[in-house]
Amino acid sequence: MSKFPKGFLWGGATAANQLEGGYREGGKGLSIADALPGGPERFKIANQPDFDWQLKPDQYTYPNHAGIDHYHRFREDIALFAEMGFKCYRFSIAWSRIFPQGDETEPNAAGLEFYDQIVAECLKYNIQPVITISHYEMPLNLVTTYGGWKNKQLIGFYERFARTVLTRYYKQVKYWMTFNEINSALHFPVMGQGLVASNGANDMQNIYQAWHNQFIAGAKAVQIGHQLDPTLKVGCMLLYATTYSYNANPVNQLATLKQNQAFNQFCGDVQVRGAYPSYTESLLQQYGFSFNDLDTTADELALLKANPVDYIGFSYYMSATVDVTGETQDKASGNLIGGVKNPYLKASDWGWQIDPTGLRIALNEMYQRYQKPLFVVENGLGAKDEISADHQVNDNYRIDYLRKHIEAMAGAVDDGVDLMGYTPWGCIDLVSASTGQMSKRYGFIYVDLDDNGQGTLNRYPKKSFSWYQQVIQSNGAKL
Questions:
Q1: Low-confidence stretches of the chain (pLDDT beneath 50)
Q2: Which residues are catalytic?
Q3: What's the CATH fold of domain 9-473?
Q4: One of this protein's Pfam families, by short name (predicted)?
């Protein structure tokens, strides 16, 4: 017997900037992803004091420009998703396809026509689209001309974009998310906010101002969605990393509580509860400023209160461990959010600590806190896959990772958590957001492309493809 409810949304997740390619086709403008170099040093390069967002092809590679050519091959890809039995497909709409500069008053018709085809192709196979409105791909002009999300003018630009796509697709698309991993800006504001060292990322007041502006923009999207159709589900999307103290030392316990507030809870509290949490002032004062220093208005706070999100989408890849006492110097090098190594956990090829039980804990923590439906919209294992001469990929390690996380979700459902669905990340191999590499593979489908952009782009189902097909067919009963 399956522990998952009838109608559970099994599927997979991608982002436009990591798989589409066609970066100057169909009238598309440049996005921040197009200007970020490929390779493991991409964040370090972007945070150099003189980084100017100019493309330098003689100096760097830009794998996002070609992606995996989904722009031309989406029918083939969605047919493979249908073969696996997907009930839903989470993808993003590239903002710079719809508003190439971000500040136009009229959308780009060719961009909308492209997503018309994506949505239609999904519905042809009874796959429900789950759309992320903004996923690490804001138009580059909004950064170079306006300074990124710290500028309140972006609220209006996003509102126009959101209104355009919601109005066009609300009759076909029930599930939406406002911003991908909005809280990730605490550690890397470049992707979500367009902030790097050269335009203010080192000043935490800018990051919190940018968040406020995004919260207001997101509330407007919720408002627009509900005006179009009150049954539309518009959620937020968080990066959640279950966080432990390294030991029982009360100093570490307090530091863990504070880290949870700052990272796992703050952005969710505002968007789900519709108000800034009680600990906001204490949080901001550690950075040397106050809530009163932010540019907020009574009307904006009322808008937040009136338009909380309908559900919480979140990514879960790893947990984090906190030690502020210096008892251990063993840093968790691969974790994007830092911390020390957890001695009880193994790590992926890229150093991310694998912790399925942490997902059950995360689901319980969030559901008890918010009492709103949860949706695991990213989870997966980035690994170096080997393909045989006859195009077989025996990725038992990926199957093992996903099986344990699905078992953890089943446990959370047993615990009483209202869980809507599961869309593992990178259901087809794509360009990694954190490293800009193809060799960090997540997919059920192997794409013949290397880190240098060489390969046939042919698609080959991995062993995990037929395994996941069975999982979906049995509604999670056969793992």
A1: none
A2: 378
A3: TIM Barrel (3.20.20)
A4: Glyco_hydro_1
